[in-house]
């Protein structure tokens, strides 16, 4: 059988995806998921994944951050694996004290589709006795959501970082109950010995299938997104400090109300992004020190999420926002102050032409040139990290109504299968080019 | 001994207050308190209070809201009790995920001083074998803070309300764990049979000693506040509704960001109160449906607390705030909406001249006319409710730096003793006037 005629089994893929979601992390009476990294549910689905991969004859390595590498050998003894991957953890259910929305609950496709599709590719190669030139690997990256241990794309970040301290720092990060990542890795049996370092456990290239999480493919009637880059991002954890006071006994002009100042800053984040047209800026998380309606808040914390097409635009938007903050604080008469508690960021990630070409030709072969589009990812992904150190690219399939991180997150079984088929063919085409010495 | 020479025992009062706080609800390494209504700590201090009052020969009645009435008989068989009271519950420790402040923790004086002082008055009457004309009662009102079961001054409100449904409604209110007030009353043994109704379990009058919780007495170098009224208050629980979205993939102009709109409304609450000079308005509580930094918030809820000297001013300030809200929503381009989920309120409470006079003359006798001042209370108190149906007034003593609902809440032992002494003499003066047929 010619490799280009090889087809994944869409029914098997979708059945595997849905049944494992139903078994491990499903929310009762909902298609929503709550599968926090290294939770009992995550441990169970990981154990299942390892069993499945071993049954296909793969070698399985667990690294120091719990990343699972399942490797199917190729003909060549000296090539690194062409990898496919994503993550099996999901968003949590957020605290919802008063309202009844389900927002903040994870869906069944974000991350999960990418790993399940990689498994389906391995199954297809195995049942057809395909011998690739390079090894082919499946990767499940730990804690991509950063929902349990703060810090999205954490473990792919450690693997891709030229830093001796990143691993140690991430092992020490605690969840809300105070459990460290290291303890959670130990407790689940996923604190592996393989170095979490691209230099010691390397890859030839990396392909990631993911749902778009936005409305563009659907709106333009395209079926596959050929992802060329991930936009640059920066986050700031902010604190506004005021002075506590009783709401009934403290005169307005004597107040130092942290929430009033925070409110002006939050409005300014949105206004500045709109006025400059540089990119998007969002405050998605806010917490107040007080939970008493009769108390003037003394401290409010919030996180600003800034994303633009290029790193320079990210810098310009950040500068404009903080300039506006300084003006607001100067004009405020309530004697509050603000500070930046912590910053994170992920520079703009430009994918590799060879990988992009493999995805594009695989997609064209499946649906023709009129149903695919090149696009940049607005969301961060593990591939954004891997692209810093190995050739990488991504495949997007449509998200119904552009919704994700929500039980309403949905991608049709046909699109899931299409994504897996494009993934298979992209890997095979890339492998073929290596065999022929085209990419090297 | 002439009644006017009678003196409370300040050392005993302060020792009783501090030791019971240390035993039931103290926070380790802090003077802060966490004694939520009908918690294990509250049950213990209530049991202690009942034992102490019975040891002084008082009859103890528990009503349907768990209010404790400890009654010391007087000479007259047909008079209702002159009551003294406040509450033994405190503010909770609020959730503090990131910051390290202690704000939101209760102190040792708010409410607690009023009940302890009432007990000290009973002890003083008992040890001096004083026979009053009217019975004298101590009252511990349940859930004044509204910190466990939402709704401040809840049980004094039920007692003072001409409504057959208030009791049932309050019994059904749930705490954060879903426990109803009725269940908590049953579990602690404080679901009494005495009707929680001023018409069936009435009082002759009501006096409440409380810390000021504001800076005025200290700033003016006065020692006693003669409280003539409690300002009018109104609360609105608000919800702003938008549409969820991914922070990286949703363009600014397509967003419906609930937090951005909420931020504009919160700033407007403060700005409107300052611009109109009608009173004070505060947003002390804010919650968002989402806890993900990568999510555009779809729902934000907050509580507005509005207080003015008169009910008419409260109405005017509310009208001005909501007019501004409508303008903001109209000008917003992000397609959000707001709704009022619930309102509460406590109309302006004007205390009774006879009770005010008794407090004033008792205070003048203790510290002279230059060390007392008439004042309105900015905070709500159980006396605000009782004043709707029986003659009532309050005594304020200084709060250090005006701080309360905080471990830094402090009133000197001397001022605590002074407050109790004024309470004793106000009750005796009022009793004397009843005996003499002056107040009737």
TrEMBL record, chains A, B:
<dbReference type="GO" id="GO:0016813">
    <property type="term" value="F:hydrolase activity, acting on carbon-nitrogen (but not peptide) bonds, in linear amidines"/>
</dbReference>
<dbReference type="InterPro" id="IPR002933">
    <property type="entry name" value="Peptidase_M20"/>
</dbReference>
<dbReference type="InterPro" id="IPR036264">
    <property type="entry name" value="Bact_exopeptidase_dim_dom"/>
</dbReference>
<dbReference type="InterPro" id="IPR010158">
    <property type="entry name" value="Amidase_Cbmase"/>
</dbReference>
<keyword id="KW-0378">Hydrolase</keyword>
<comment type="similarity">
    <text>Belongs to the peptidase M20A family.</text>
</comment>
<dbReference type="InterPro" id="IPR011650">
    <property type="entry name" value="Peptidase_M20_dimer"/>
</dbReference>
<dbReference type="Pfam" id="PF07687">
    <property type="entry name" value="M20_dimer"/>
</dbReference>
<dbReference type="Pfam" id="PF01546">
    <property type="entry name" value="Peptidase_M20"/>
</dbReference>
<protein>
    <submittedName>
        <fullName>N-carbamoyl-L-amino-acid hydrolase</fullName>
    </submittedName>
</protein>
<feature type="domain" description="Peptidase M20 dimerisation">
    <location>
        <begin position="229"/>
        <end position="327"/>
    </location>
</feature>
């Amino acid at each position: 059988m010619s490799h280009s005629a090889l087809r994944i089994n869409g029914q098997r893929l979708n059945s595997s995806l849905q049944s494992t979601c139903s078994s491990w992390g499903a929310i009762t009476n909902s298609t929503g998921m709550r599968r926090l990294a290294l939770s009992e549910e995550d441990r169970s689905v990981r154990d299942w994944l390892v069993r499945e991969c071993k049954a296909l004859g793969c070698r399985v390595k667990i690294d120091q951050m719990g990343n699972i590498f399942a490797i199917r050998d190729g003909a060549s003894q000296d090539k690194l694996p062409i990898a496919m991957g994503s993550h099996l953890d999901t968003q949590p259910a957020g605290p919802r004290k008063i309202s009844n929305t389900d927002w903040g609950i994870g869906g069944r496709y974000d991350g999960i589709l990418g790993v399940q599709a990689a498994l389906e590719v391995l199954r297809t190669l195995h049942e057809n006795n395909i011998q690739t030139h390079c090894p082919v690997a499946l990767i499940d990256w730990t804690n991509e959501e950063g929902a349990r241990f703060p810090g999205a794309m954490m473990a792919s970040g450690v693997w891709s970082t030229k830093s001796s301290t990143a691993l140690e720092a991430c092992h020490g990060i605690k969840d809300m109950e105070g459990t460290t990542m290291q303890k959670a890795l130990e407790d689940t049996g996923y604190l592996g010995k393989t170095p979490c370092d691209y230099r010691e456990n390397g890859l030839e290239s990396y392909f990631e299938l993911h749902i778009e999480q936005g409305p563009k493919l659907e709106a333009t009637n395209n079926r596959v997104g050929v992802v060329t880059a991930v936009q640059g991002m920066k986050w700031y954890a902010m604190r506004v400090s005021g002075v506590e006071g009783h709401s009934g006994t403290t005169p307005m002009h004597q107040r130092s109300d942290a929430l009033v100042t925070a409110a002006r800053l939050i409005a300014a984040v949105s206004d500045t992004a709109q006025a400059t047209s540089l990119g998007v800026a969002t405050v998605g998380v806010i917490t107040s020190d007080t939970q008493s309606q009769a108390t003037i808040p003394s401290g409010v914390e919030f996180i600003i999420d800034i994303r633009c097409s290029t790193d320079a635009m990210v810098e310009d938007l950040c500068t404009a926002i903080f300039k506006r903050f300084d003006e607001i604080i100067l004009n405020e008469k309530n004697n509050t102050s603000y500070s930046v508690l912590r910053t994170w960021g992920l520079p703009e990630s430009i994918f590799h032409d060879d990988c992009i070409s493999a995805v594009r030709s695989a997609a064209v072969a499946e649906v023709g040139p009129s149903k695919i589009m090149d696009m940049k990812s607005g969301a961060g992904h593990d591939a954004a990290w891997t692209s810093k150190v190995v050739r990488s690219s991504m495949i997007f399939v449509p998200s119904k109504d552009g919704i994700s991180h929500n039980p309403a997150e949905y991608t049709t079984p046909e699109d899931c299968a299409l994504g897996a088929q494009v993934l298979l063919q992209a890997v095979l085409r890339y492998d073929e080019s290596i065999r022929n010495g085209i990419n090297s």
